[in-house]
Automatic annotation (TrEMBL):
Name of the molecule in the record: Amino acid permease/ SLC12A domain-containing protein
Organism: Xylaria hypoxylon
Keywords: Membrane, Transmembrane, Transmembrane helix, Transport
PROSITE patterns: AMINO_ACID_PERMEASE_1
Molecular function per GO: transmembrane transporter activity
Record flagged with keyword Membrane: yes
Length: 503
């Protein structure tokens, strides 16, 4: 039986490598992930309980319970459409280039190079900034978690000065890169562990806050029907601005595509993993959010906190030690999420570099012979993240910029191959194993509409009027900065030298 299983895996790996070779690439990465393991990694990339916990401020201030609960449900349903749309295309083109490669192959010859270039840069920038925001959120969440312990004056015991937050961020970033570089073959085991860890942590929080509920419990009409906007925006628009919370937690949906060359039978398994993971994420998100909303006490006070979840849990259990114990699973999940994002980001840089699209590509496309990872590309990503992290010294709202840019860039990148597929009448995807027919058309339209909403939406400040420089949303600045770099490199080098993926 063992030998038969081994044969099946080898046979599957060979077929996947042959398909990759037919697409024009030499197989360089080891296919170590099974169907379940790629689904687990997709789940870890989102790490929904952690992602929702670290960004609860946005819907809390923009719409209260209605934004928290129904915003999460609405965005999850939209992202199912995005995942299904990408799944159709991935069943035809399963490479580490992901949406970048797909945009090139689907676009008309006359503008395929430019469309792939733009999509590739958006995808890489999105990967880098989402990874940065995950690691930075872990640093901020750790500070807030420590401060459930208070001094005699009622102040948190840890000052959390900008330099302290930055140093914690550096520590988290280094840890994630070390694990990704040195422990690649054990990462699938870590992803599997994360599944059980996540649900154990969520259930512990759910039972504890609802059972103890020191400050009482809200009724169902408040949890599912109370809307309260304290952002300064008009109520309708305020609700939409608060969707950054849910969009951030689901933005990693397409990052799993960068792992296609390390997955057995990626053409069939990756599309299924993407769609099914969103359904699991939807359930995990509701299990996390509903208990927290039931025990929310002072909505306006919590809206003034950058990280309100530690305060909500402490208020519910009435104990600093108990609250911190319940926050530990979320902190560990944050580290695991950072490791997953670091892994996926290094593959996106590797894939884009092997087609010569990033300055210094000859270094970034190298796969380390002993570690079996694109180590140089991983280090490039780490250096860029640390450089961008310095923005925090100028604005404590830097995390808003990082998360905003990541969501904007990835959402736009996901839409590129979907849009060009629609332009060609979806002829290519009809040949894939994950073709959805008319349902696919509907998913495509929803995906493109979501992109058109996201780009202006998450460039907005969370609260208005903006009277303090620290409240400015720097997402458009970072986004435009990367866009200028990519266009300058295209004019200087790409226009004459970049030919795109092999055909």
């Amino acid at each position: 039986m063992v030998s038969g299983d081994h044969f099946d895996e080898t046979d599957s790996d060979t077929a996947a490598d042959q398909m990759l070779t037919s697409l024009g690439y030499k197989p360089e990465l080891l296919r170590t992930r099974s169907t379940f393991q790629v689904a687990f990694m997709s789940f870890v990339l989102a790490s929904v309980p952690y992602g929702l916990a670290t960004t609860l401020y946005y819907p809390l201030v923009c719409g209260g319970p209605v934004d928290i609960i129904w915003g999460w449900v609405a965005v999850s349903l939209i992202i199912i459409c995005v995942a299904a749309s990408l799944g159709e295309i991935t069943s035809v083109y399963p490479t580490a280039g992901g949406v970048y490669y797909q945009a090139f192959m689907l676009a008309p010859i006359s503008y395929r190079r430019l469309s792939a270039w733009i999509c590739g840069w958006l995808y890489v920038v999105g990967n880098i900034t989402i990874t940065l925001s995950v690691n930075f959120a872990t640093a901020l969440f750790l500070v807030a978690s420590i401060n459930v312990f208070e001094t005699a004056e009622g102040e948190g015991i840890f000052a959390g000065e900008p330099y302290q937050v930055f140093l914690i961020f550096l520590g988290v970033t280094f840890l994630c890169n070390i694990v990704c570089a040195l422990c690649n073959k054990w990462l699938p085991i870590l992803d599997t562990f994360a599944i059980f860890w996540t649900f154990a942590g969520v259930i512990a929080i759910l039972i504890s806050v609802l059972a103890v509920a020191k400050q009482g419990r809200r009724d169902a009409s408040f949890v599912f029907g109370h809307f309260e906007a304290n952002s300064g925006w008009t109520p309708g628009w305020s609700f939409f601005v608060g969707l950054l919370h849910a969009a951030y937690a689901t933005s990693s949906t397409g990052m799993i595509l960068s792992m296609c060359e390390e997955v057995r039978a990626p053409a069939t398994q990756v599309p299924k993993a993407m769609v099914l993971t969103i359904l699991f994420n939807l359930a995990a998100g509701l299990l996390t959010l509903i208990p927290l909303v039931f025990v929310i006490d002072d909505l306006k006070y919590l809206s003034s906190l950058a990280q309100p979840v530690p305060a909500i849990i402490k208020g519910a259990v009435g104990s600093s030690g108990g609250a911190f114990a319940l926050l530990v699973p979320l902190l560990v999940l944050g580290i695991i999420c950072g490791i997953g994002c670091t892994t996926a980001t290094s593959r996106s840089i590797y894939a884009f570099s092997r087609d010569g699209a990033i300055p210094g590509s000859k270094w970034w496309k190298v796969v380390h012979p002993k570690l079996d990872v694109p180590f140089n590309g991983m280090m490039l990503s780490m250096v860029v993240q640390i450089a961008l992290g310095l923005i925090y010294f100028g604005s404590t709202a830097a995390f808003n910029a990082f998360s905003g840019v990541g969501v904007i860039a990835l959402t736009a990148a996901y839409s590129a191959p979907i849009f060009v597929s629609m332009l060609e009448g979806r002829k290519t995807v009809s040949t894939g194993s994950f073709y959805l027919g008319k349902i696919g058309w509907a998913c495509n339209i929803v995906s493109i509409s979501w992109t058109l909403l996201v780009i202006p939406l998450f460039s907005m400040p969370t609260t208005v009027p903006v009277t303090d420089p620290s409240l400015v949303n720097y997402a458009p600045v970072v986004f435009v900065g990367f866009t200028v770099i990519s266009l300058a490199w295209y004019i200087a080098w790409g226009r004459k030298n970049y030919v795109g993926p092999p055909t």
